Amino acid sequence: MSKTTLEFVNHASVLISSGKINLLSDPWYNGAVFHNGWRLLCETDESKIINILKKTTHIYISHEHPDHFSTHFFLNKNIKNILIEKNIEILFQHTSDKRVVSFLKKNDFKVNELKMNEKINLSDDVQIQIIKHDFYDSSLIFKTPNLKILNLNDCPMREENEIKKFKKKYGSFDILLTQFSYAAWKGGVDNKIYRENAAEEKLNTIEKQANILNCRSVIPFASFIYFSNELNFYMNDSINTPERIKKRFLNKKFDVIFFSPDEIQEIDDLKQKQLSLDFWREKYNSINLKPKDKFEKSIHFQDLIFEYKNYIKKIEKKNSKFLIHFLKKIKLMNLFQSINIRLYDHNKIYKYSIFKGLVESSNYVPDVSMHSQSLAFIFKNQFGFDTLTVNGCFECSQEGFSKLAKTFSIGSLNALGISINLSLLFKPQIVFLFLFKLRKVLSKLV
Q1: CB 366 within 8 A of CB 403
Q2: Which CA distances in Å does 376 have to 155, 311, 355, 407?
Q3: Is pTM beyond 0.70 here?
Q4: SS3 for 133?
Q5: Which residues contact 414 (CB under 8 A, 6 or more apart)?
Q6: For residue 445, which of 34, 58, 398, 419 is within the disulfide window of CB 3.0 to 4.6 Å?
Q7: pLDDT (tens digit, 9 = 90+) per residue, 72-87?
Q8: How far apart are CA 36 and CA 295, in angstroms?
């Protein structure tokens, strides 16, 4: 029987090896992501990446977020050549929009799009299964005859009943790989208590996941980043560190093991190495010394109007204008309200309405403040609002965030293949899920 090993590469990227199978996950190794909002605590040299790929047989991409699906990685000429020459198979969940799969196929990569809960054998001894979570996340089950590993990355599986339901369907696991710190906007500069609570909530989630799924070992990962922009740098004030997590989980039924880059261990004999903890302590202690990303260029008002006009054309093409107007009139839902947006670099406030665009006025009290590049990014990209909520380069109140989400989330839904039209009436679970998640965020902003 072949021994199974795990090699940590960076962030959410690990190489799980068993026999002839070497499965790499979520390759993001350098550069800023989320519109200059995140950077890695340490980057991986291309020479090391190439050495990893020489061993790789398959690549699993959990979801489309750029810290998991890095187009920069796949378009790198040297990397692309290796992926194609070695015929490395890329594994991805089935989606209705086909965006990731289409991108990969267009670039001549070998792709296997797995259906929900589909089990496939990569070899006689290795079976995998991709599990879809919420709107776009997925987890991976890696199974050998004597071992079950769950790569949960940053899937939102937090509640006890939700984890128990997952266990009932998929069983217990020997090893759990899971995110260990918060990874999105948490209430603005003055709301540190929200970030502290979010960090604590993440620890409680890890404990519930490990206990309910009967894991003997937990490998925390997918959080080795810092908020890198001058507008979100404050969010590093409460992030979880390996040191804090090790102290929190002393004397538990499960072991917690942090890996450092290039570290390889046999799954059956995992041990915490002090050198790895020392490595990460130095990286976290030096965050405040790192340079901050900035939005250097201001987007002029007329350019914002141009981007808005293209944005609304895409909205009207994919959604029912009548239904949006109808939903806007239902006061109980408060969808598609006008928003007062202050642009830092313009030092002006604009009133935004989904069908009227931007109107300049100094008489409004801002609901939200952001850079003109962030607003332009929302107009240019369907995933723009989703990116903004992750990078946190904005300030707003509880009411302001509610307005922001209920107006600009339409782009994020469209990016997932969900349109605001009559067919949505037959998918109430999507509406309820969106409103449930929004209420959860708003309840923590008080």
Answers
A1: no
A2: 29, 10, 16, 15
A3: yes
A4: strand
A5: 314, 315, 318, 319, 382
A6: 398
A7: 999 999 999 999 999 9
A8: 8
